Amino acid sequence: MTQTPLRRYQQRIVDEIGQRNAIVVLPTGSGKTLIATAKISKKRSDSFDFDSSEQNLIMLFVVPTRDLVRQQSSYLEREVPKLRIVSFVSDESKSSLKELLSTTTLNCFDILVTTPAALLATISNLNSSLSWDDISMLVLDECHHTTKHHPYRKMISHWQSQRNRCQLIGLTASCSYKITEKSQREDIERLCGMLHTNLILTANSEEMINDGYHASEAKVDYATSTRDISLQFDFQYASVKLDKKSTLRNSFFRAIKEGIGSEFTRKLVEIVRSLEDSIQLSDSSFRSPIDKKGKGGKLKAWGKSCEKRAKQVKSPTLARQYAYLRHWYEALRLVIIAFPSPPVPHPPPTDEIAFLYLAMMVQEAENPFDSLRTKIERCFDVWQDTFLGVPGRLQRLTDVLDEQYRLFGTSIRIVIFVQHQIAAHVLKFFLQHEPIVMSWAKPVCIHSTNTSGLSMSATDVKLAISAFRTNQANILVATSVAEEGMDIPACNVVVRFDPIQTPVSMIQSRGRARQENSAFVVMEEMKQKPLDMLLEAETLQKQVLKDVSQRSPQLPLQSALDVMPTVNRVPLRASTPRLPTQRRPAPSAVARGNSLARLNKLVQKQGLEISTKCVQEPDTKEWIYQLSVGADVGLSVHRTKKQAKLLAADDLLRKLGKR
């Protein structure tokens, strides 16, 4: 068994799972991973004692992010040291999971920890040494991702198509992103259908408290501008409606052209354009990424393009200019992402963050643009008065932190959640220099490691969490990476600096405050999803989970494929479609057209019958298409019905060995 003893509710859940598929729904920090680990250990032990056919099979522990691969691998090695653990993170080397498995035989390890994308790319390959038949158990951490457009969904669709016998256990703190009871019920039933189970296991607060877990929820406090503060603003922000046919970037610049926006935003755009014009005089090959279309014009590509050109140019001055422009691009990107900003409070919250980012990165740095030096210095003088002279959200943040410090004293442990990676660094910088809190605040920040702009390696993340755990730091500023699964030490104050988007985000971030008398402070709300609505959605979800979990285990749920409407069995017509966007190399349009023709010819020649099923997912609008001949199944998921059908035909031919 595991090194850590199970609580009684954890042992009950392990026993109730048995040999069935199940979904475990428990609060953050209540030991979901320990339950899965105990089940893995028991299944491995049983394979040697009772079922010798499973001795050579492995178990998969799939997590949604690369950071969690490292964390869960270490956890498993600590809890079940007798089992052999292998982990794989796709971006750490040039090799693929397929190459790793080719050099490591399956009987050399017991558990593989990886991400769904890496697993799917390998297991769907015909030449791979790994198949679903080699797996006895599949654990899905944060399994609620399966209900949205996520690699989990594609992986589960592939697992469904194989109809193998491996046991599946899903772990989550919340099952649905939806608000209403009807949509939540549909989400949860869809999740159960995809995981082939109607067994949902949880524990109530009374049971968990009796077993020694502090299950009381953090007290919710409001520190929002819309509830507590009435501010005057000196500009009119027109009501901007985004054109669905236009990109966010185009809508933003159209609004700026019409004179809509804060003074800071308009001046920021003006300076960026001036910097671009100045570079154009020195580098005639330069083209503004703002005006580009396609991948090069995406917001996240702006800073990367400057970084790339700074390395390519031979002139040191021009390289410094590109590096300087990069920071202005990042500040502008922050403003565009938050567009259109609400008219209150003033100044707009994202403007504050963008200004502080520029103050942190370029105000004190050498300006390589001689002709624009005076203009930029004057702008910073004006912005200094604008943002430091008005009580904006950053000032409210210091008031909140100071109030909480008076309550908790030196034992205070704060986690501040922000939406953007740059904002995490900006708040850390702000708290280090803010006179009200700098005497006691020791901030660190974390975010995902694959970021442009301010970089953060996996080692940096590990050191930050270690500092927070050992009390070398008492404030952790984090993006959503700290909401799910990551082993963040328990704290007593959680602050949501940016608006909460979904009930899942609220439940998981609030669950970080697990100490007695903890506080959960919300500083901004979405007009469409106020906090009261999210809290009500959480209550509804508990009732829906209770209703679904009380259904008889003898009534199996149908998967998404099982409930597909059966289509008339007619010959398929070949055509030449556009290439779909896929992670693995897709067959050419001609090859897929030939696949349809060859499949029809094969069916007619051998007197077989094609069974066709298709359904469109209501959330993502993607088509799931299944073609089957006897026990062989071809499956595909695509945004268009035609493409899905063509890819399913190609997949079926591969299964039949005719490709």
Automatic annotation (TrEMBL):
DRBM domain location: 594-658
Gene Ontology MF, one: RNA binding
UniProt-listed Pfam families: DEAD, Helicase_C
InterPro entries: DEAD/DEAH_box_helicase_dom, dsRBD_dom, Helicase_ATP-bd, Helicase_C-like, P-loop_NTPase, RLR_Helicase
Keyword field: ATP-binding, Nucleotide-binding, RNA-binding
Xref: Gene3D superfamilies: 3.30.160.20, P-loop containing nucleotide triphosphate hydrolases
Annotated Helicase ATP-binding domain residues: 13-193
UniProt cross-references to CDD domains, sorted A to Z: DSRM_SF
GO cellular component assignments: cytoplasm
Domain Helicase C-terminal: 393-556
PROSITE patterns (UniProt xref): DS_RBD, HELICASE_ATP_BIND_1, HELICASE_CTER
Record-linked PANTHER family: ANTIVIRAL INNATE IMMUNE RESPONSE RECEPTOR RIG-I, HELICASE WITH DEATH DOMAIN-RELATED
Protein name: Endoribonuclease Dicer-like 2a
Annotated source species: Hirondellea gigas
Lineage, highest ranks first: Eukaryota, Metazoa, Ecdysozoa, Arthropoda, Crustacea
